[in-house]
Write a structure and sequence with these properties.
The protein is of the alpha/beta class. The protein has a domain of 151 residues: 3-Layer(aba) Sandwich (Phosphatidylinositol Transfer Protein Sec14p), CATH 3.40.525. The chain has nine helices and four strands; from the N terminus they run ααββαβααβαααα. InterPro entries: CRAL-TRIO_dom (IPR001251), CRAL-TRIO_dom_sf (IPR036865).
Amino acid sequence: MSSIKLMSFEEELQKNPELKEADIQTLREWTNQILEGTTREGYKIIYGRLLDSEPSHFVYNDCMKLLNMVIDLWLYTEGTCAGHIILFDMKNVSFGHVGRLSPMGLKKFLYYLQDGLPVRLKGFHFMNASPLHMHSTSDSLEKFVPLEVLPNEADGQAGPLQELHNKQVKKLEDSVAWFEDDEANHRVNESLRPGKAKTATDLFGVEGSFKKLEID
């Protein structure tokens, strides 16, 4: 299934081409950026981190919308590469954030990552996640991600996190016209489909388990 078609089902993740107040608020609370440099294998690194540690301010679907916009804009401006990895920095995450996850939104996003995202996803990494026993420090992460491309606050050398975040925000703000064109011209009109139009419920249902996410 094409990424364009899948995005038509992702109502929670659909881009609004205008950066409205809700989006600006999300930009204050969450950063998503594709870091400069690559892994040893030549993979680009999609880095995400909460800027605000207060769980009541966390809106999962808005954060995923921002992530999708960052990836779309990168693909438009940079093209393709050997692959991408996603690195979530859990520094400001607590169990209070878990209760604010949207189960259906999470299920749809995992489905989109597997079958619709137009990049070669090579892996997920989590750092500063001691309770989960993943990358408890940057020492083990360095085997996969060169530390020099990480923000200073993540034990890296690429510069202050806020400075890198502001740079990514400016890219989004400068690209509103492109997002408007993409929204207007790259969506599927299900009313033109031969036979019955398909909806998100047809694909995902209301209940059910998560689909297994496959990584190259």
